[in-house]
Each structure stands twice: as C-alpha cells, then as structure tokens.
Design goal:
62% of the residues lie in helices and 0% in strands. It has helices at 13-29, 34-43, 46-57, 60-68, 79-83, 90-101, 117-136, 143-157, 160-172, 175-195, 212-219. Helix 8 packs antiparallel against helix 9 (160-172). It is a peripheral membrane protein.
Length: 228
C-alpha cells in the first residue's frame, strides 16, 4: 500500500475496524486522550467526510477552501499581529484564548488513517478550526464547554467521533453539570446547529480582523444573554 499524502498510514479494512473499536473505547474512557479521539475520528468518518465535502462544494467559499487548502498553524497565522487587533475581533479573541489555555495553532494532530486525500484535508481542516467554534459559541475548553461544542459539530458534520464525544461527555459530567448543560446549553446549541450555516464554509484566516459578532450574525448564531 502506498502513502497518498504526508503522514498517511495505509491500513487494511480489518486493521481499520480494530483501530476504530479500540480508539472508540479509549476515547469514551478518557475524552482527553487526544490521540485516541483522533484515531477514532479518522477510522469512522468516511461517509461523514463525504457529506462535509459536498456541503463545502455547494458553497463558493467552501469550494475555494477545498481548492486552496489553507492550514492553521503558527507559520501561517501571525500571533503578534493578532494581539494588536481590537478586543472583539476574531483574531484577538483567538490569540487571547490560545494564551489563556496555553495552547498553540500547532496543537492539532495530523490526519493519518484517512485514505482519500480530499477527505483527509476536510478532517484536518475541521481539527484546525475547532477552536474557532469555541469562540463562535462562547464556550470554554473545559468538559462542559467541549460537550456543547461537540453537540454543535456533531449535528453540522455528522462525524461519528463528534457524536461519541457529545454523548460520552454528558455521561462523564457530574449530575449537577449534566443537568445544567441539558437544561441550558443544549436547549440553544442544538437548534443553533440545525439553523446555522455550515461553519466549514468560513475562511477563518481571511476573517481574523472581523468583529466576532458580525461572523456569528453571518452564520446565524445567537448567543443567549445568560448561560451561567
């Protein structure tokens, strides 16, 4: 078997099934095992990735993203410039989040087990813009915030890994926090995901100087006044 893109690891169908089962179990047991979450996403996502690609192909900006294949990394995003932007711009909010949680644009693992190069890029793109969804939904990166974001992403992308994290994350929350997210967060996140435009069709690199509220309005995302 031949590698089709950088980092690609070809596997047999049997190996893919084993990887999918093993990584799914590990990811359920520990949602912070990012390596297992990544493998689970790659080995179970074929039909979902085709669905995502078609939704991008049906949109002018999405089509351009598929053609140009931009990447989010410390070499493509000038964090020093972002720190100088006005407070509510996407770029300033993004760099502030990176600083707050001590993460970098390079934190996302490269896709390895997706055989279709186009599908591999779609999944890589999803990983690299995931942090922007936290900003769009005003969600922290703790377990409660991650669960809310994963419900939004699961509905919009149909990725099995997102559904696994969305449902499995609920089970890992304390009874009090589970009740809170069910009665507050998901009551607006689920309708928002169904009604909002597809987040993969936002060329985030070109919108870093834009006001975050303007991007939310463009997508059709409304943040409730009180979610605490």
């Amino acid at each position: 078997m031949v590698s089709l893109y950088p980092h690609h690891i070809p596997v047999t169908t049997f190996q893919r099934v084993l990887l999918g089962i093993g990584s799914s179990v590990a990811a359920l047991q520990d949602p912070y095992r990012h390596d297992m979450v990544a493998v689970c996403g790659e080995t179970t996502a074929s039909s979902a990735l085709e669905h995502m690609k078609k939704k991008m192909e049906n949109n002018a900006t999405g089509t351009r993203i598929l053609k140009e294949k931009p990447r989010i990394s410390s070499s493509s995003v000038d964090l020093k410039v972002l720190r100088g932007l006005p407070p509510n711009t996407l770029g300033r909010q993004y760099v502030d989040m990176l600083n707050k949680y001590q993460i970098t644009p390079d934190s996302r693992l490269p896709v390895k087990f997706v055989d279709d190069p186009e599908h591999a890029y779609v999944l890589q793109r999803y990983r690299e813009i995931h942090d922007f969804n936290h900003l769009l939904l005003e969600q922290p990166t703790n377990l409660r915030g991650e669960v809310a974001v994963k419900w939004f992403e699961a509905i919009q992308t149909t990725l099995p890994m997102c559904w696994l994290a969305a449902i499995g994350g609920l089970a890992r929350l304390s009874k009090k926090r589970r009740k809170l997210i069910l009665q507050r967060d998901l009551l607006w996140v689920i309708p928002a995901a169904k009604e909002a435009k597809f987040f993969m069709n936002i060329y985030f690199e070109e919108r870093l100087q834009d006001d975050l509220d303007d991007i939310r309005e463009e997508l059709g995302i409304q943040i409730p006044k009180s979610r605490n």
